[in-house]
Amino acid sequence: MAKRRKNRTHLKGGQRDEGKSSAPKSFIIKHGHVGSSITQLVRDMRKVMEPNTASRLKERNRNKLKDYMTMGPALQVTHLLAFRLTPIAPSLRIVRLSDGPTLSFRVERYSLMKDVLNTARRAKSIGMEYLTPPLLVLASFPQPGPGTPPHLPLVMKAFQSLFPPLSPHTISLSSARRVVLISYNEERGTIDFRHYLIRVKAHGVSKRVRRVVESATSSSKPVINLGKEKDVADFLLRRRGDPGPDGGYESASSAESAVEDGDMVSLASDYVGRNNKKGTKRAVKLEEVGPRMELRLVKITEGVPGKEGNVIYHEFVKKTKKEIAEQKAAIAEKERLRKQRREEQERNVARKKKSANKKGDDDASSDDEGSVEDESGGEGDVEHEVDDIGEWDEEEEISEGEESEDEQDLSEEDSSDEDKPPAKKPRFHRKR
């Protein structure tokens, strides 16, 4: 009996339905020659943007930026994030395919995911959180108004378009596993990028009690060593500042409650994890997993790289109204010439197609005229042939006209060839 084939039940992102097809998708690449650190940063950003990104995209040195912008719309990719190493600092370009705009950032400082995890007190298990897209939080951005810089609302919309829209009425609570925080630093004029995991823990339980319960119910966590304690009550009820069994003083975080009342929420529905049922009170914590980035906006341009348009904003170059008008006029003239060349090419293609079709009709008409010529030269037979092209009339009588001179010569040659013996093949002698 043949072995039953297992179905694929571990597809990334769960079942693919029609609603997810409208979610923004992205390419995250490195452009040009970069070091190993920027390469790892690209991999970390792909983890952040999962599952709506090409996490296993393989780049080659011969691939150009134009290749990704050409193939992106065909693969329903909406955004392109390109990292590049410049002589000043690494840069990041966020390109909206296929019409723009393009936002150019300078990466002032960054930390990789492994660096952030190494600084944590405890190792974090990372895996199932990346099956759903993260939640986007925009913080410290000023409200739109007369005194607000005009480029900040465009930056907010650019980051919002990178992630799927959030619908509180239809979202599943168990799918909210990660948070991406984009905050604006007004003092430095930079944008901070942070990535967190959402952790739900028991509320109103001290850290020692939680350690005892977790070690008893979990097979992966080690059993607590109480060999130095006289009684289990000494371990559970020890107050802050009291000396421990080894003579040292414990920190406040280890003795007090793990969370405060402000972090407590009542779950609206079941959540992932043990005993996280609907209606229970749980504490929500954010644990940073990285990467971190501090971005400085340099330039915003219309269009995409290679087809840049008007410069909407520039951090270091300030132009007068006259220079802006001249730039717009030059861009309009360039666009007019491009449309003119395209129209001329379309006219040339149409003209060549028309001439090719006309030539094909002429060839077809000449073939039809040759086929309707009657061997006897009668006009009535010509009409009959035109009506029945490609058909043969069995009852039609073919008049035996006079043979032409060529046919007579051929017949004489045939009859004479039958009487004559076969001709001998000539022999050639090589000269010595």
Automatic annotation (TrEMBL):
Pfam families according to UniProt: Brix
Annotated Acidic residues bias:
363-417
Provide the species name: Coprinopsis cinerea (strain Okayama-7 / 130 / ATCC MYA-4618 / FGSC 9003) (Inky cap fungus)
**Locations of Basic residues compositional bias?**
1-13, 423-432
Which BP terms in the Gene Ontology apply to this protein? Answer: ribosomal large subunit assembly; rRNA processing
GO CC terms? preribosome, large subunit precursor
Q: What is this protein called?
A: rRNA binding protein
Q: Where is the Brix domain?
A: 24-306
Which PANTHER family does UniProt cross-reference here? PETER PAN-RELATED (PTHR12661), SUPPRESSOR OF SWI4 1 HOMOLOG (PTHR12661:SF5)
Basic and acidic residues bias locations = 334-349
GO molecular function terms noted in the UniProt entry: rRNA binding
The top of its lineage is: Eukaryota, Fungi, Dikarya, Basidiomycota, Agaricomycotina
The segment annotated Disordered runs over: 1-26, 334-432
Coiled-coil annotated spans: none
